Amino acid sequence: MSGTGDERASLISARLDFLFAHIFPRDGGPQSQDAVSLATGVPVALLQRLRAGEPVTEGVDDDPFIARLEHLLKTRKTAEGKPHTITDVARACGKSRTWLYNLLDDKSKPSLESTKLLCKIFGVDPSFFTDGPLEALARHFGIEAGARFFVLPDDDELVRETKSQVELVALLREVGAPAVLSRYLGTLPPGAPPRSGA
Predict the structure, then answer these.
(1) Of 3, 139, 50, 25, whose CA–CA distance to 147 is shortest?
(2) In whole angstroms, what is the distance from residue 19 CA to residue 23 CA?
C-alpha cells in the first residue's frame, strides 16, 4: 500500500480519473459523478474529494449500512415513480416505522432477512450496504481487484494488469468490437446477418 495519506490520495485520484475516462455505460458517453454516486451510494461530495486528491480516511462512513439506506430513501423511486416513504418501506418489510427509524438511528441492526427485503425493495445487491467507498466504486466500474486497485503503487502487477484490461476494453468499444466479438462468438440475436466465412 502507499506510504503517506497524500500519496494514497493521489493514487486514488489518478485511478478514478483513469476509470472515468475509460469506462462508459452501455448507452454511450462518460459517466457523471452524479450517476456513479446514485449507483454506488458513495456521496457526490466524497467522490469529488477523492477525485480531487484530498486525503480521506478509510472509515468515511461511520456505518455504511445507515448511510446507504439513507441514500436509497433519498434517491430511489417506486415503480410508480414516487419517492419511497418510511411507512411503505417498513410495511414492505413486514415491520413498523419505528423499526426502520431505529435502523436509521443506529439503535438496532437489521437481520439478514430484513436486509434481503430491503435489497429487493430498492433493487440493490447486499454488498451495496456493506462495501466501503473504494470497494463500492471498484464494484461499479467492474474492477475485480477491488479497492486494492486504488491504493497499490503503479508498478504493482495487479494495477498494471487491471489498467491493461480496462484499456483493451475501451479500445474495443471505440472500434465497435462488441459487434465483432458477438459475431465471432456466435452470440448475435436470431435474424442477424451471419458471420463472414460461416
Answers:
(1) 139
(2) 6
